[in-house]
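[User]
Protein folding is very new to me. Any chance you could explain this protein sequence and its structure tokens? I have pasted everything here:
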Amino acid sequence: MLLRLLRSCLELPEINPLVSIVVPVFRDTPQLSELLVTLQPEAAIGSCEVVVANGDVTDDSIRDLHDIYPFVRWVTSESGRGQQMNAGAAAASGRWLLFLHADARLDQRWRTILQEADAMSAVVGGAFALSIISSHWAARFIEKGVAARVRWFSLPYGDQAVFVRRKIFKQLGGYAALPLMEDVELIRRLSVVGNLWFPAMPVHVSARRWEKDGWARRTGLNLCLSVLYFLGVSPRRLASWYYGAREKVVGPCSETPHNIAENEPVVVIMPAFNEEEAIGEVIAEIPDGIHEVIVVDNASTDGTVERARAAGATVVTEANRGYGNACLRGLRRATSMGDAIIVFLDADRSDFPLEMIALVEPIRQGTADFVLGDRGGSDRPWHARVGTELCVGLINKLWRTEYRDLGPFRAIRRSAIDRLKMVDRTWGWTIEMQIKAAEVGLVICEVPVRQRARIGQSKISGTVTGTVKAGLRMLYTIWCLWRTRRARGF
């Protein structure tokens, strides 16, 4: 009896608290300091444990907080919200883990929610309701939208203070090692193993991200990321767009040969419409060894034809406007070259023509039939990136492909493109080629290519209106090809 009493006395709350609050930070010292002030009363009496996972070991400012807030358990990890939260969870001892962003504030009654969740054995996790600290009308609109998303799809985001039983979190292996969407991925796995609970109690989130990026733009960005993720676009791909950083895989052009082997016929086809400012420079940058450069004038009203001829290109005319019409006209002109490698290149100088060497090489080596230039996306207008990711995600979902881009810079052997029986006359040409290439079983690969500011205004991505029009045409092309595929019984 005495031993049991002694044990009960030794079981202090801070040894095995109900909740461990895990806060991932990366250069968020001011926000973190303000947050810790609000958590100090509960932590001081052992009602909760606070674990801060720092993702930047070079940040000296956060070290000043160690002495100010001795109740905090400090851990470090590699940067990345998922990795940091996993590191914090590994150091935690509470029955529940509550993942809280540094710029968020819990309601004063938050602990009662965790106590209620703890009493419901079927509940494995959940999240609070989003409340944005702003009087702007858009904040209320976003809050209602988030509430509807959670109500209809049981899908909260990480800024809603996700909570989960530590035992379940450990069984599931924690957050996946994803650069983005790690919170959505965890929620989806949690929903499989138990019930999720979404109480009406709010978590108050700073409006700084919306105020910095713009309310409409930030909201649209979050929505697009979710849609693209569920369409099958990889989180790594989404992160490269979202953070504007892309891993460079191709070395500088000077490290590659400056010509193409003369024993392999290569023909460059360049559709052009009013590109007099750029076309001469583009042709001049084409590497040596190309057998013919065919510029297809698509009813230009400027000096495109004269500039192209002066630069040494063969010029043919296609009076019927449309990107597909121009490409098909160029293919008819290239018939005399036999089974040549065909390179499609825009005439606006947005690509680096020398990089067609990287596109042609896999075909020459016999390791690919069709090679695409993957532009990444960080240097392109946001509306162009969104449109591309939407179409790519839809194609990958419906045809089970793994495309990363729909860029026009591409190479394909003549015999391979003849198998595709191309018919599209507009901006759907590139999509039709990629879908049909997958359907007929061509060996396809993508290589990274660089992008630069084009000369003149883009016919597609130069304006939001142009992007929407081209995007609708592309979506229509996808729908038509999918309908045809289903009719054939694939």
